[in-house]
Amino acid sequence: MFPQHFSDWLQQFVPLELYQALFALLADKPWYVVDKYQQVKYCSPGLLQLLGYETDEFLVQRVAPLGLELDFKGLKTTSSATVSNAEGISISVAKTTSWLSGQDAEIIAGICLLTPRVDSSKEPSKTIHKPNKDNFHGIISRSPAMHAVFQIIENAAATTATVLVRGESGSGKELVARAIHQLSTRNSGPFLAINCAALSSSLLESELFGHVRGAFTGAVKDHSGLFQRANGGTLFLDEVAELPLELQAKLLRVLQERNYIPVGGDRSINVDVRIVAATHRSLREQVRLGEFREDLMYRLRVVPIFIPPLRERREDINLLLWHFIRLHNAENFRRIEKIDPAAMQILLDYAWPGNVRELHNVVEYAFAVGRGTVLRSAELPPEFRELPRSPELDDKPLALLSPEQEADAIRAALSRYQGKLNLAANALGMSRATFWRKRKLYGL
């Protein structure tokens, strides 16, 4: 690669010192080194500046979710690509790649230089970029229903209106609240959150509105409540339907008058706080049952946002699976590169009553109990490996079923897995040959 006289001259230098000098010279350029497992081993300050990452934060990332992966073919290449920065914004770049080989001539690392591309119709210093449509302020989705939610979030964030987020447990209500805060003019202020179902009435009142010294036994000093601490920012009230009736009146006063009196106090405190509330219940139904104030419902429900459950946006299951897998791959305990088709079919067919939170827990379970680069159905929680049975089967082992019951179980497995014999056989604990023979026996 170098002229012989230059190669000979380089022998007098300690290699590490030479590398360090070169690295320092090229510090402002966006470049990085990855090993053959696509793990970042070094990144320049210029790359961190381009992508908006801190060093420690960036080095735990796998390159795939950022668009930095390299094709280990051993050829120096320059290609167009799109990479994602820390905020999920895409940046158009040219990637120039070179390679490092080990003693046996096997390629063991790649070095890549990024050159941001510019739009010739605009100022040359401006980088072309567009938001990552699948990642909206930490909410991962490509569902049209969720993209409609994203638009409502953007529109609502531009106002001062109170927002009520409705969605099932685990669907990401707090992420919606955080997105509203980040997109609003209050994003430089605090974002505080509290679960209204997690505390008793007295503790919740003290936590929300604060108390003065001597207000009750143990109140040895004044305590600032969440409303006071969130002044100038956003307060997220999760499970607001569980708020006791006596506190609902006090919350209504804050929303109407923009002031409140701490527990045991005699003077009101003015506050400027935006409320984003969330619930998995219907507030209208709670009002009908006499458990929620109708006037407060209307104050909270100025802009209602409904989050569809995961079972209604199945196109997100695969996207979310790989999002969480990449997060856990970065921990370097186990690296999953593939999902076995049988496991994927089970995950796609599951109803996900716990929504996105449950899906994340399933991935975490698989990383804890399994090994290797393939996620298999045996690494899923037990409930994912149990085929739903008819009530008349009474959870009997297949060996104890009558021919009619066994035929019903085979028919149910074929229906659930859409005629895929391997998946249906695995679900029933049979070999493919046994499943085929019994299927033929029962004329299914």
UniProtKB/TrEMBL annotation:
Alphabetical list of InterPro entries matching this protein: AAA+_ATPase (IPR003593), AAA_lid_NorR (IPR058031), Homeodomain-like_sf (IPR009057), HTH_Fis (IPR002197), P-loop_NTPase (IPR027417), Sigma_54_int (IPR002078), Sigma_54_int_dom_ATP-bd_1 (IPR025662), Sigma_54_int_dom_ATP-bd_2 (IPR025943)
Spans through the membrane: none
Alphabetical keyword list: ATP-binding, DNA-binding, Nucleotide-binding, Transcription, Transcription regulation
Q: What is this protein called?
A: Fis family transcriptional regulator
Query: Per its UniProt record, what Pfam families does this chain match?
Result: AAA_lid_14, HTH_8, Sigma54_activat
Instruction: Specify the Sigma-54 factor interaction domain's residue ranges.
Output: 139-368
Organism the protein comes from: Methylocucumis oryzae
Question: Single Gene Ontology BP term?
Answer: regulation of DNA-templated transcription
PROSITE patterns assigned: SIGMA54_INTERACT_1 (PS00675), SIGMA54_INTERACT_2 (PS00676), SIGMA54_INTERACT_3 (PS00688), SIGMA54_INTERACT_4 (PS50045)
Q: Does the keyword Nucleotide-binding apply?
A: yes
Q: Which domain of life does the UniProt lineage start with?
A: Bacteria
